[in-house]
Specification:
Blueprint: H1 2-23, E1 31-39, E2 54-58, E3 63-68, E4 71-79, E5 85-92, H2 103-111, E6 113-119, E7 122-129, E8 132-139
Antiparallel strand pairs: 1-2, 1-8, 2-3, 3-4, 4-5, 6-7, 7-8
Length: 145
Amino acid sequence: MRLYQLTLLFVATVIVSCSTVEDDPTLEGIEWFLVSETALDGSDASIWDTDEIYSVQFMADSVFLATIDCNDCTGSYSTGIRGQLAVQVRGCTEVACIPPSYDRRFKQVFHAADSFQLEIDELKIFSTYEDSVRILILRQSERSP
């Protein structure tokens, strides 16, 4: 009887642990590549059609690394309940990228991040920027359609 109770306790602990992991998505360890930026209402959508790379990688120690066109940035981030996200850009190289470059815009919208939504291979970062909510849409694999 005692072994049966211990087995049930173990199974219940595993089930709760697994559901907790699913409820708390992680951004860590994946390099996310920018696909587009849009307003929350769907207006003013822009696909940044360049040969340059805009990507972000969130590390386990609350540090992020970003490639923003011809520049590299680093900084810190924190996540909270219900997908809250705070980003602090600490430093970037300041090379003048060849036009058209969206490096300043990306840094500004990314730095203003409020929250995120994670769906399998897509990351949406929501930012309050210039009196509107902007969405950066990123995918795990480079240049995904």
